[in-house]
Amino acid sequence: MGKVAVSMSMSLDGFVTGPHDSRKNPLGEGGEVLHHWLGPTSTPADQAVLQEMVDGAGVILMGRRSYDICVGDGGWGDGGPAGQVPCFVLTHNPPAEAPDVFTFVTDGIESAIAQAQAVAGDRVVGLHGATAAQQALAVGLLDEIQVHLVPVLLGGGVRLFDLLGADPVNLERDRVVEAGSGVTHLRYRVIR
Ligand SMILES: NC(=O)c1ccc[n+]([C@@H]2O[C@H](COP(=O)([O-])OP(=O)(O)OC[C@H]3O[C@@H](n4cnc5c(N)ncnc54)[C@H](OP(=O)(O)O)[C@@H]3O)[C@@H](O)[C@H]2O)c1
């Protein structure tokens, strides 16, 4: 079975968006800098990290806010964040219509991960948005955390590691890639 991993661009103060993320401004105020390593400032080291993620992705699992903000003309067209890679969306209220690549799950994170792994096979279930990662950690189903640490302090927005339980989560650092773009790609195994 493939691993469950989160891979997100994060500011040094822990935000994966700036303040007021919305369909018009998916990464919030000032947050677009979080993804510059994927475009304008990308170096061969950044591209290698990205290619590894693209090659490994079996299913993307996300929360409904990510879907609402980014689907269609929000930036993804008729696909998801990785084109036609299947996407599962956690939600309380599935939409009446959606592009074919999306499957909506209403019975919680454990069910969503089980369904995603069944489709992904040996490939990675990649978590997208902050709440899926937090819930996967809480139920002991997250294997890996990859943070693309961007040298900016955003001061507000969506925190990647909000709403964790009281117990510490121990990690083992697995890899550090210092890209010439200024981004540090950090990868950790979750110790369980
Ligand atoms: N920096 C990066 O690399 C990066 C990457 C990806 C996304 N993002 C950004 O992250 C933001 C979204 O992240 P987010 O953490 O705010 O929201 P999210 O995780 O995408 O969505 C949260 C929503 O998902 C639904 N949900 C989550 N868990 C559920 C469960 N167990 N059962 C039923 N429904 C559940 C709920 O919506 P309902 O109750 O409405 O159904 C909840 O309000 C977006 O702005 C996106 O652009 C950044």
Please give a structural write-up.
The chain has an eight-stranded mixed beta sheet, with helices on both faces. It has a single domain (4-190), classed as Dihydrofolate Reductase, subunit A (3-Layer(aba) Sandwich). Strand 7 (171-178) and strand 8 form a beta hairpin. The two termini are 17 Å apart. The longest helix has 13 residues, at 44-56. The protein is globular and about 40 Å long. The protein has helices spanning 44-56, 64-70, 109-120, 130-138, and strands at 4-11, 57-63, 87-90, 102-105, 124-128, 144-150, 171-178, 184-190. The protein is an alpha/beta fold and 192 residues long. It has four helices and eight strands, in the order E-H-E-H-E-E-H-E-H-E-E-E. Residues 8-9, 16-17, 21, 26-27, 34, 62-66, 69-70, 90-93, 108-109, 128-132, 135, 158 line the site of NADP nicotinamide-adenine-dinucleotide phosphate.
* Oligomeric state of the chains present here: single chain
Main structural class: alpha/beta
How far apart, in Å, are the first and last alpha carbons? 17 Å
Q: Give the count of helical stretches.
A: 4
Largest sheet: 8 strands, mixed
Number of strands: 8
The proportion of strand residues reads 25-35%
CATH superfamily: Dihydrofolate Reductase, subunit A
* CATH architecture annotation name: 3-Layer(aba) Sandwich
For the largest beta sheet, what order do the strands appear in spatially?
4-3-2-5-1-6-8-7
Which CATH first-tier class would you pick? Alpha Beta
